[in-house]
Design goal:
The structure holds two protein chains of two kinds. Chain A has a seven-stranded mixed sheet with strand order 2-3-4-1-5-6-7, with helices on both faces. Chain A is an alpha/beta fold. Helices cover 34% and strands 28% of the residues of chain A. Chain A has a single domain, classed as Rossmann fold (3-Layer(aba) Sandwich). By secondary structure, chain B is α+β, with helices and mostly antiparallel strands. Chain B folds into two domains: 153 residues, no CATH class; 70 residues, Winged helix-like DNA-binding domain superfamily/Winged helix DNA-binding domain (Arc Repressor Mutant, subunit A, Orthogonal Bundle), CATH 1.10.10. Chain B has a five-stranded antiparallel sheet. A two-stranded antiparallel ribbon of chain B has the order 6-7. In chain B, helix 2 runs antiparallel to helix 3, helix 2 crosses helix 5 and helix 6 crosses helix 9. Chain B starts with a strand and ends with a helix. The chains are: A alpha/beta, B alpha+beta. The interface between A and B is large, with 52 and 34 residues.
Chain lengths: 181, 276
C-alpha cells in the first residue's frame, strides 16, 4: 500500500480543520484543545498537533491530508508534517486581513521546507465581509501566476476544486520538468 | 465585497499600494482614535481628501497654501455665500485673481498632506467604499500614488526610528548635566524653545506636546534633536528587556519520488477526487 500526503496550512482559524473534514472519508483525527489565550478566543478549540484526514484512491493508494496547527507556538510540527508532501494548500481567512502577513510568513516557511507545488485559497468567500480575491493577491504579495482560489471550507465541491487545482499544478510541474530534460 | 480591517494589521502604505495596483475608485475611510479621515481615489489615483471637521473649502485651502491673505480669505468667505468650490474657482480664475494651476497645486498639496498624516497612524479601523465618491461640487485632483507611497515609507522609517529612540510619550525629560553647556548658546528654533521651556522631570513628553499643540511626530522630532545635541536626557522607566525576535528556521528539503511514478499517481488522485 502506497501512501501520499498533502498538507493544509495557514494561520489560526483559517478553516483548515473544516477543509479536511469536508472531503475526508474518515472522521478527522483532530488534536484539538480548548483555547487558553484570551486574545485567540475567537473559537472554542484549536489544533495543537495536526489534523488527519484520509481519501482511499484504490487498493494500492491512499491520500492523507494533514492540517497543521495554526498557532505559532506549535510550529515545530510544521516541518515534520511537510516531509515528503506532494504539495500544500495555504488557507487564508478572507475576512481577517490581520492574518495576511502571518499567511505570507507560513507560505515562505513551507516553501523553504520543500519546493513542492502549492496553491493559496481564500476561505470564507461566502461571507459578506470577505476581501475580494484580487485585493487579497496584492495584499499577500502573490505572483500573478500563482493560483489563488476562492473557497468555502465547509462546502465539499469547493474543497474538491482546491485539491484538484493543486493536483493539476503538480502535474503541470512534472510535465515541465520532463520537457526540460 | 468588503475591503476593511485594522491599521495595526494592515498599514496605510500597504493600503495605498493595493489601491494603486488594483486601480481602485472609491473612498477610503479611516477612523483613528481622535479623527476620521476620508480619502477618495479615481482609477488608483488620489482625487480628494477630508480630515475630520477641518475646513477643506477652496478658500481655506488657498489660504493655507498662502495663495490668499487673511483679509482676502475673509472677504471671499463673506462674498462667496453658498457658492460651490467649482463655481468659486472659476470666478477666481476668470477674475485673474489666481491661476488654475495655483488652485490645483494648492488642493494637491492639501490632500497629499492629509494622506501623509495617515502614515503615522498605528491605531484605527479602515474600510473602502467603492460607491462613495467626492461631493459633486468639490474640485478633485489626480495625483499618482507612487511618490506618496515612497514619501510615506520614508516618514514611516523616520517614525520608527523616532519610536525606537522615544518609545513612549509618558516619559519625562531633564536637562543633561554637562559642565560648561549653556542652553542659551544653542541656536534653537521657536518650536524648540517652546518645548525647552516645558522641560522638567514633572512634565511628561505627552503633556509637553499637548501644551505646545504638537503632534506625536512633531514632538518626537524636536525631542530627538535635543537628545542628539546632548541637551536633554530621557528619564526612562525601568522595565523588562524586549525578547529577541525569532526567525523561522529553514531546513533541508525532502527528496522527491521519481517523476514517472508520481505522474501516474497524480492522475489516479485526480480521478478519485473528482469522484468524491
Amino acid at each position: 500500500m502506497q501512501t501520499v500526503k498533502m498538507v493544509v496550512t495557514g494561520p489560526f482559524n483559517a478553516g483548515k480543520t473544516e477543509f479536511i473534514r469536508s472531503v475526508s472519508e474518515i472522521d478527522v483525527v483532530s488534536t484539538e484543545r480548548k483555547i487558553s489565550s484570551d486574545t485567540e478566543r475567537i473559537k472554542e478549540t484549536t489544533t495543537v498537533a495536526m489534523d488527519f484526514g484520509r481519501i482511499t484512491v484504490d487498493d494500492d493508494l491512499v491520500l492523507y491530508l494533514f492540517g497543521t496547527p495554526g498557532q505559532r507556538r506549535f510550529d515545530f510540527m510544521w516541518e515534520i508534517l511537510s516531509e515528503g508532501m506532494l504539495g500544500f494548500v495555504v488557507m487564508v481567512d478572507s475576512t481577517r486581513p490581520e492574518t495576511f502577513r502571518e499567511a505570507r510568513t507560513i507560505l515562505e516557511t513551507f516553501r523553504a521546507y520543500a519546493p513542492t507545488p502549492y496553491v493559496v485559497t481564500a476561505n470564507k468567500q461566502d461571507r459578506e465581509d470577505a476581501w475580494e480575491l484580487e485585493d487579497m493577491r496584492i495584499a499577500l504579495r502573490l505572483d500573478p501566476k500563482l493560483k489563488l482560489l476562492p473557497c468555502v471550507a465547509t462546502n465539499k465541491e469547493s474543497v474538491k476544486n482546491v485539491l484538484l487545482e493543486l493536483l493539476y499544478s503538480i502535474l503541470a510541474e512534472m510535465e515541465l520538468k520532463e520537457k526540460g530534460k | 465585497m468588503a475591503l476593511k480591517g485594522n491599521l495595526r494589521d494592515f498599514t496605510i502604505t500597504q493600503l495605498l499600494n493595493l489601491i494603486n495596483l488594483a486601480r481602485k475608485t472609491g473612498t477610503l475611510i479611516v477612523e483613528g482614535p481622535n479623527e476620521r479621515v476620508l480619502v477618495s481615489f479615481r482609477d488608483g489615483k488620489l482625487a480628494y481628501a477630508q480630515a475630520g471637521q477641518e475646513d477643506n473649502g477652496l478658500v481655506a485651502v488657498l489660504y493655507r497654501a498662502r495663495r490668499l491673505s487673511a483679509n482676502q480669505s475673509k472677504a471671499l468667505k463673506e462674498r462667496a455665500g453658498n457658492m460651490s468650490d467649482k463655481e468659486l474657482g472659476l470666478l477666481l480664475v476668470n477674475a485673474n485673481y489666481i491661476t488654475q494651476q495655483d488652485i490645483i497645486n494648492s488642493l494637491q498639496m492639501y490632500f497629499v498632506g492629509i494622506v501623509n498624516r495617515l502614515f503615522t497612524w498605528v491605531e484605527g479601523m479602515f474600510r473602502f467604499e467603492n460607491e462613495l465618491l467626492p461631493p459633486d461640487d468639490k474640485i478633485t485632483v489626480r495625483v499618482g500614488l507612487e511618490n506618496i507611497i515612497i514619501e510615506g515609507s520614508r516618514r514611516l522609517r523616520e517614525w520608527e526610528q523616532l519610536q525606537d529612540e522615544i518609545p513612549n510619550l509618558d516619559m519625562s525629560l531633564k536637562f543633561a548635566e554637562r559642565p560648561g553647556a549653556n542652553i542659551r548658546n544653542f541656536n534653537l528654533s521657536v518650536e524648540e524653545w517652546r518645548v525647552v521651556s516645558y522641560i522638567n522631570p514633572k512634565n511628561t513628553i505627552r503633556q509637553i506636546a499637548r501644551a505646545t499643540k504638537m503632534s506625536d511626530l512633531e514632538i518626537r522630532r524636536i525631542i530627538y534633536g535635543l537628545l542628539q545635541a546632548g541637551l536633554v536626557e530621557i528619564i526612562r522607566p525601568e522595565g523588562p528587556a524586549r525578547p529577541p525576535v525569532q526567525q523561522p528556521s529553514a531546513r533541508p528539503t525532502v527528496p522527491q519520488p521519481s517523476p514517472e511514478e508520481q505522474k501516474s499517481l497524480i492522475n489516479r488522485l485526480i480521478m478519485r477526487i473528482r469522484s468524491i
